[in-house]
TrEMBL record:
Keywords noted in UniProt: Disulfide bond, Hydrolase, Metal-binding, Metalloprotease, Protease, Signal, Zinc
Binding sites annotated in the UniProt record for Zn(2+): 176, 180, 186
Domain of life: Eukaryota
Cofactor binding note from Swiss-Prot or TrEMBL: Binds 1 zinc ion per subunit.
Protein name: Metalloendopeptidase
Organism field: Mastacembelus armatus
InterPro entries listed in its UniProt record: MetalloPept_cat_dom_sf, Peptidase_M12A, Peptidase_Metallo, ZnMP_hatching_enz
PROSITE patterns to which the protein is assigned, alphabetical: ASTACIN
Gene Ontology MF terms: metalloendopeptidase activity; zinc ion binding
Signal sequence segment: 1-19
Amino acid sequence: MEWIILMCVFSTCISAVHTQKFLFSPQWGPIGYKEHDERGHGTAMDEIIKANEFQASRMLDGATTLREGDIAVSTGRRSKVCFARSCIWSKSVDGHVYIAYTLSPEYSEMETELIKKGMENIEKGTCVRFVPWTHQRDYLDIQPKSGCWSYLGARGGRQTVSLQSPDCLQVGVISHEFMHALGFVHEQSRFDRDNYVTIMWPNIWRDRVRNFEKFRTDSLDLPYDYGSIMHFGMYAYSQDGEPTIIPKSSKNIKLGQTLTLSHIDKLKINKLYKCG
Ligand SMILES: [Zn+2]
């Protein structure tokens, strides 16, 4: 009998210690977000997770939800499936891909500058050009709605890109959302990602496990890009501060990107849009 009581006391102690470790561990931060990893700043996606998990609601409106954390999907509308090659923006005869946009008047001058810097990140070294909307049928409507998100690829007509102020107004975040609008999904959603990274399923916040699904993507014959601005950080959606994605080749590889596109991100754009 004493033995059973002793066992009960022991297991209660163990679970109390565990709970305490979870709640008060210095590693523990808001769920799904880690302030900085040991090797520097958080990735663009870390900032997006922070903004979307703590500011935005999951359901953007009655018919729109977020997939993978920041890709808007309309449930009401029969949305086209955009995996890289479909849903691309049309190309002009001069070889450029002009993407028209409108900017909400709610943005300050400084915020407008940041958004333009995010556009320049995409334009540099590619044939994509963002142009203020005049009459174009398809265009981006950039709005400070709730959270940072975009639809995938060109949907036809007006499509919203949400860049909430101030949380989403960071150059890397802005460029990341424009990459979605160009048609790119997250790098670790690639169908062949298991050759390159290990997803640490038990460390993922249970409600967000779906954000780590793989998709039948077209990798455009480009190598897996650990440093893509579209890659989740090592601690994305961690429930206890432990890594959720570990590179297979070396643990010292930094995942994701903070400020701008990687070299391979540019190649992706140039291949998908057949830039000269
Ligand atoms: Zn994203």
